[in-house]
Design a protein that fits this description.
The structure is a single chain. The chain contains three helices and six strands, in the order αβαβββββα. The protein has helices at about 5-15, 40-55, 140-155, and strands spanning about 20-25, 65-75, 80, 90, 100-110, 110-120. The strands form two sheets. A four-stranded mixed beta sheet has the order 1-2-5-6, covered by helices on one side. Strands 3-4 form a two-stranded antiparallel ribbon.
């Protein structure tokens, strides 16, 4: 980091301004509706979700903190085990296999709760919508669902006059 950037960061911290933060915990992930059988794959999935939720901090105003508890996950599609071992295969038909997630959240600023709730997210039309996530992203439908919830519930846009 260059000296001007370090000085700016220190000045921001000294002024009392705080960074926005998003933290996530998984409540009994072994009981989730839809998780890979492999412990390595389950850990990778939780890590991917935790990193994605954490990346949402860029959309929060400085000083706000969002705590998320993931209570359940049902990924898009159906999981089919491979006979020869290896990773399971997820098949998405676009029917009654849409992604769903159960979350509890608390949004705080300066120790005061701004918003909290218990939400059940779902995206029944997950294959009919264009999203900003790459087709190679295995969690693109779930991330699109999270983005919609975050934009509507956590940082709603004010309609222009």
């Amino acid at each position: 980091m260059t000296k001007p950037l370090v000085a700016a960061a220190l000045a921001l911290l000294a002024s009392g301004a705080a960074w926005a933060d998003v933290s996530v915990t998984f409540v009994k992930p072994e009981e989730f509706t839809d998780m890979p059988r492999s412990p390595i794959e389950r850990e990778r999935l939780q890590k991917d979700f935790a990193q994605y939720f954490a990346s949402l901090d860029k959309q929060l105003p400085p000083g706000q903190n969002l705590s998320i508890e993931v209570v359940d996950i049902d990924l898009a599609g159906q999981l089919w085990p491979r006979r020869s071992g290896g990773e399971d295969i997820r098949i998405m038909r676009g029917g009654a296999d849409w992604p769903q997630m159960h979350l509890r959240y608390t949004l705080e600023e300066n120790g005061q709760v701004l918003r909290s709730g218990d939400e059940r997210l779902s995206n029944m039309n997950y294959q009919q919508r264009m999203g900003r996530h790459s087709d190679s992203d295995t969690l693109r439908y779930e991330k699109q669902m999270i983005d919609e919830w975050f934009g509507k519930t956590i940082v709603p846009k004010v309609a222009s006059r």
